[in-house]
Structures are given as C-alpha cells and as structure tokens.
Write a structure and sequence with these properties.
Length: about 220
C-alpha cells in the first residue's frame, strides 16, 4: 500500500510539473512536417525522460553546484529564441535529417535543464526507491507526448501561441538563473525582483524573436 501511494503521488506530480516540458517539445517540432513531428515528440520525450532518471538519482548534489542553474537558464533562453524563430513560419513539407536531429537536441537540452522541479519532487517522493523513480518517469512519457502533440496542433491553428510559449520559456530561464546558489547568496533577489526580471525576459524573448523574424 505504501508503494502504491508513493507511486500515485509521483504520477500526480509528473502530471502537474510536465507542462513546461510539453511546451518546449511542441515549439521544437513546430517547424517539422506532421509525420516527423510525431516521431520527434515521441523520441525527444523518451530520450529526455531517460536522461532525467540519471539526474534524479543525484538531484540533491547537482542542485548545490554554483553556476549550474545559470548555465541551464541561459541555455533555455537561447533555445526559446531559437525555436521561436524556427517555429514562426509555416511547417515544411519536407525536412532534412539535420533539422530533425536539431529539434531532438533542443528537446533534450531544454527538457533536462527545465526538469529541476520534477527531479526534486520525484527524488523526495521516491525516498531513494529506484523502482518508483523509473515508474514515475515512465508514466510521464504518454502525458508529455499527448500534451506536446496537442500544443503543436494548437500552434498551427493559433500562431500567437508560439510567441506566448517562447515567452513562458523566457520566464523559466530567468527563474533558473535567479535561483542559482551563487545568485541567491550574492544578490539575495527578492520575490518582486524575480517577478520583474522574469517579466522583462518574457518581453525580451518575444521582441527579439519578432525582430529577427522580420529581418528574415
């Protein structure tokens, strides 16, 4: 019974925390044709979850390393801008292997760097039980795949969602940078300051993406 309750709590946390991961996958595959898009969603989500299993085991140690979240936040900001530019046009009828692998790479890097909340929650709920860790992360794959496919379809119909999604990734990147141990110990950012910086990064990502798209 204890195992089942722990497994249920992990599944619920996966469902609650996987929204930003689904968002980055949907943005990364937005420029691919439908068939490659489905393959990219499934492959990218599976690879990202597999990498997350390893990080969950060492989550407590990883999160204490200074500058790590700063690097991850900067990576998310760069990916947010890049996928915004790539996804702002109409999906291509064909895709080169390079573009497909690039989308998978974006998914893996962004998902991994954005999964800190998920990793901590699962590591705490599992209490070191690797069976629970594997079960919880495996269950999250279908949800992320379904959500990513739904979001990518909505972006086809409502292109403004592309900019909203990229802006939300800008907020995630800002939050990661401002919660890095070095930043917290050095600057002691207040909640208000974090909200202001996150809002500024949302607008900056959207504005920069629009500017670059127009020049193209």
């Amino acid at each position: 019974m204890h195992f089942l309750l722990s497994a249920l709590s992990i599944v619920l946390m996966d469902l609650l925390l996987a929204g930003d991961n689904a968002l980055v996958i949907a943005l990364a595959v937005r420029s691919l044709p439908p068939r490659e898009r489905r393959i990219g969603i499934a492959g990218g989500a599976t690879a990202a979850v597999a990498l997350r299993v390893g990080l969950t085991v060492v989550a407590a140690h990883v999160l204490t390393i200074p500058y790590l979240q700063i690097a991850g936040g900067l990576a998310v900001l760069w990916i947010a801008l890049k996928v915004l530019i790539d996804a702002s046009g109409e999906p291509s009828a064909t895709v080169s292997p390079k573009d497909f692998l690039q989308a998978i790479w974006y998914i893996m890097v962004a998902d991994l760097t954005m999964s800190i909340d998920n990793i901590l929650a699962i590591a705490g709920a599992s209490k070191g039980d690797y069976r629970l860790i594997l079960f919880g992360l495996a269950v999250s794959i279908p949800f992320v795949v379904f959500s990513s496919d739904l979001l990518s379809r909505l972006m086809d119909r409502f292109p403004v969602l592309i900019y909203i999604g990229a802006g939300l990734l800008g907020k995630v990147g800002g939050d990661m940078i401002l919660t890095d141990p070095f930043v917290v110990q050095t600057w002691h950012p207040t909640p208000l300051f974090r909200y202001v910086v996150s809002g500024a990064l949302v607008l900056a990502v959207i504005a920069a993406g629009r500017m670059i798209c127009r020049k193209r």
